[in-house]
Amino acid sequence: MAGTPSRDLRLLRAAAELWDQDEQEIGFLARLFTQTSLPYRDPGDKPRWERRNGDLTLSVRPGSTGYPYGAMPRLLLNWLSTEALRTKSRDLVLGRNLSDFMRQLGLTPTGGKNGTITRLMKQSDRLFQASLAVRWEGEHRVAGGQMNVASEYNLWSRPSDDPEAHTLFPSVVRLSGDFFDEVTNHPVPIDLGALRALRGSALRLDIYCWLTYRMSYLRRPSTVSWDTLRAQFGSELADTKQGRGQFRRDFAKHLREVLLVYRDANVETSESGVTLSPSRTHVPFKGLRDIARSPYEIESSTGSVFGNEGGLAAL
User: Fold this and answer.
1) What are the C-alpha distances in Å from 19 to residues 14, 22, 127, 223, 279?
2) Contacts of 91 by beta carbon, 8 Å cutoff, 6+ apart
3) How far apart (Å, rounded) are the C-alpha atoms in residues 198 and 295?
4) pLDDT at residue 160, as a whole number
């Protein structure tokens, strides 16, 4: 193992720990975010950023503090989805204190301008300020709507010298009705231990959640073209020969890392794309039918844009 980068060693150790676990720690993610995702890097001054997956398009407009991007908002979305299902409530308390909340996300509190404390606070604010719009275009109809994550929030205003310290008022968020509906009506189970192992890369997190969802309903082999994958996972790269080649290399590398964690996924790469074959799901979907029938399922008055049985995505 000489010469192996420390980051790779950490991933291997984390994957080995998952292999030895008798039970999984199961969380959830709103299905929409297994089909589309947020930016990997800061889009800067763009008034709008889009990600497309087949017929489904997610558009993000930033608030006054900028775009949410990277791994932090993805970990937040996983936590919010899991807590919404666990508590059956739109009103969520973000831990006893900042340090407690970071531990729940699988993060180690570090200070400084670029530390995890500062980045989490900034990305939380950006995620809750952002305006999200979803659009689905089928052969005979078009559907869409707004789906912001939060309708209200009250967060830590600045890093404390002691992240273990309790604040006078807890940090809280009230999920928007549309986000709560999407989570409770269409939850995708995920392994929280896998997320912690993969948290060093936003692309790894996205690939893992996408694979987990795809394998839950895949019944025959399906090849997803590199162009389709690039539209979903790599739209920030230039549509040039160099950009397409860079995406293929990046995606293949991160896919290999995800497969260290999700070992049962039957996946092969080729010149034409990535072929998925029916595989054992990483997290059992047992019990989700009961969740969908639970009393706290809330249908919007106009019906759910996201309610198609086969999912919105063409993938």
Assistant:
1) 9, 8, 33, 28, 17
2) 172, 173, 174, 175
3) 34
4) 54
- Asked if residue 312 has pLDDT above 60, the reply is no
Give the pair of three-digit tokens for residue 191. Answer: 């392994």
| Choice among 8-12, 87-91, 239-243 with the minimum mean pLDDT | 8-12
92 contact partners, CB below 8 Å, separation of at least 6? 80, 83, 84, 172, 173, 174, 175
Q: Which is nearest to 30 in space by CA: 49, 52, 11, 58?
A: 58
Check whether 9 has a pLDDT greater than 90: no
Residue appearing with tokens 């993060």:
107
CA-to-CA dists, residue 180 to 164, 257, 264, 277, angstroms: 29, 31, 31, 32
Q: Which amino acid, 154?
A: N
- The side-by-side arrangement of strands in the sheet containing 222-225 is 222-225, 273-277, 266-269
When pLDDT is averaged across residues 273-298 and rounded to a whole number, the result is 64
Closest CA to 29 of 200, 216, 174, 171: 216
Separation CA 166–CA 169 (nearest Å): 8
